[in-house]
């Protein structure tokens, strides 16, 4: 995981990790939710002028198993956080943003993979 996440990431609109680290927890969680919603709007082909609901489970908004699995892999790759596909399907944007924030190691920004090449901790 680098300090500059960049636009090729799963959550391409996400600020760099240093900027996220500097935010208050509430602002950081809101930023994560916003970026997750933007990504999901594109992934789920949400029409212009509409938004993914922050309070409805993603499964009921059209997220399927394959997209949840791809999103799970992207989050692990880009943020070093393990959120399982089932967690993504059952969760809301607000819940998932809070979970992402809680699982990210802001004090020491853990790498996306350990020295042994395994994904960082956390199961979802």
UniProtKB/TrEMBL annotation:
Q: Which residues form the Carrier domain?
A: 44-100
Question: Which superkingdom is the protein from?
Answer: Bacteria
Among Pfam families, the record links this protein to: PP-binding
InterPro entries xrefs: ACP-like_sf, PP-bd_ACP
The name of this protein is Acyl carrier protein
Give the source species.
Answer: Streptomyces lateritius
């Amino acid at each position: 995981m680098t300090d500059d996440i960049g636009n090729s990431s799963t959550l391409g609109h996400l600020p760099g990790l240093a900027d996220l680290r500097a935010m208050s927890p509430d602002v950081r969680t809101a930023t994560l939710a916003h970026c997750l919603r933007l990504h999901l709007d594109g992934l789920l082909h949400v029409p212009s002028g509409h938004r993914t609901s922050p309070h409805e489970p993603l499964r009921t908004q059209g997220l399927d198993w394959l997209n949840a699995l791809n999103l799970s892999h992207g989050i692990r790759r880009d943020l070093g956080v393990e959120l399982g596909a089932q967690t993504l399907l059952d969760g809301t944007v607000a819940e998932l943003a809070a979970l992402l924030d809680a699982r990210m190691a802001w004090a020491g920004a853990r790498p996306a993979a350990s020295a042994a090449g395994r994904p960082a901790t956390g199961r979802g």
